[in-house]
């Protein structure tokens, strides 16, 4: 219907239940500038400028007409504000077919930069992107098992400085950062919600530590949540209102987009699907319980099961490659894994009734070899009404999902100089 508002397209969801904004970046405004008096014309003008900037942040590159719809401001007001913000190099016009009326507005490429830091169990990636989320430089490093927060963040700062130098970007142009971790993050996006998963990172104010070490306001986020935000904004979940992102890796977790927004739950730990109990007589899980889904389907378990048959495989990628080439043992391991995951996804669907489940992580490279047994199990175990029309697909962003999610969260939380 013409009156239906457009579906959420980007980072609106990442702020819906986000923690408090990160601390303010240095403002280009003169230190002596006083905030306008409440209710004054100047205050209204500033509020409208912020609405326009937030619309560009949420919509991505957008025409002035769509910004006017998003902000409910008059087209002439939008045009005037875009002119002002273009003049001060926060926004820029992008030529598009159809002439001036079709021109899209986006952030100026030199308006500032964001940092994404994605930390896994044995690796970290650092990226520098502009405010349009175009990654300008990126580096990945290996990490030792049981790595410490201080060491990883110090290493990330060194990489950031190298990337900045290669890009000729001064430190003050870095406006904000997003740090993603493979562990539950508390509701304030400040530290870990549980010390069981990354014990060497537990009990710390990670937001303060990362902000101090990286030298810019930093928001901390669970990696599955970041993957959900990224797939929702830029990948397979575009245009959906209710979706789940499933991370299959060393750990197993889910990020939930409900009603267009990221759902964290009361303490920030929503989506810990990897710790659904399958068999409490089975092995001990790193969370302290027994027989969690993760103990049956994690990357290490997949490797251990394949190795128990006497095969030499170095990575889950090897297992996927062998399976796709027709190896019966590797195929069996992946289909069994898919069936177990599908049982847990069925419970997720019964509880949250998503329209889309996006599967990411190393195992997702097996595509339908993994997803068909997931789909079969979901249909078998879920209530029919909860999964009618449900789509289960692989992630579009692949290994970039968490890093892009970190950048999106950074952009959503960063105060921009309007
Ligand atoms: Zn567990």
TrEMBL record:
> Protein name, please?
Transcriptional regulator, MarR family
Positions of region (Disordered): 1-41
| Protein family according to the UniProt entry | Belongs to the ROK (NagC/XylR) family.
Organism encoding this protein = Kocuria marina subsp. indica
SUPFAM superfamilies named in the record: Actin-like ATPase domain (SSF53067), Winged helix' DNA-binding domain (SSF46785)
The signal peptide annotation in the UniProt record is none
PANTHER family registered for this protein in UniProt: GLUCOKINASE, ROK (REPRESSOR, ORF, KINASE) FAMILY
Which intervals carry biased composition (Pro residues)? Answer: 22-38
- Name the domain of life this protein comes from: Bacteria
